[in-house]
Fold this protein.
Amino acid sequence: MIEVLSSFNCAANTFFVAVDLMDAFFARAGRALETRDVHLLGVTAMLLASKQEEIVPFKVSTVVEKMTHNKLRPRDVVECETEVLTALDFNPLTTPSLFVVVEMLLVKLGLHQGELSADLLKVVTYIAKMVMHDYAVLSRFPLKYIAASCLYICFKIVEQVNREFKTKHFVDKIKAALELDDVFFYKASEVVLHLAKNFETTFPFAKNLQKFDAFTLDERTRNCAV
């Protein structure tokens, strides 16, 4: 999914919405899915996500020809799309995606613009995409705790190369804004950090995250003030 959406230069949130749609369908499907079904569901989720997030969404023909190399029929995709929407009561966006909450918090902190903004977004997007691979983590903590944890780890990474960046200052603001329980927040952060440290071992098949979303911090990050 990461490779496909990156190849089409899709917005970052399209990936998060597509994964959320798949997870929501899995929770409501009420039937076992075979490998072929999962592949069909994946491309259909990207189609639906593109309709919600992209200025120019995918066409069914694009899904069939470019994403599946004609291994699926247009009818298969349309029928799957109908099944997903029906299972979700035609209301697929009941909660914001992890990426939207992260972006909202960056705006709340005033970190969505300025010299650090691009690097912060790169790092936190990478971390958030890692988390989206692990349903156990996603289902264990409320969304606001996961978003706050992703930003906390992101801030600690930036702070390592820019000593003027004060993680505690911004994390205290996040905890106050979201009314986070201190113990639960740091527990969530510990779990997300453990996932980040062991991601390549736990998910050895997930090579495309490193290939398409790997980051290096801009040299200016080391010197710019917050």
Remarks:
- DSSP finds 13 helices and no strands in the chain.
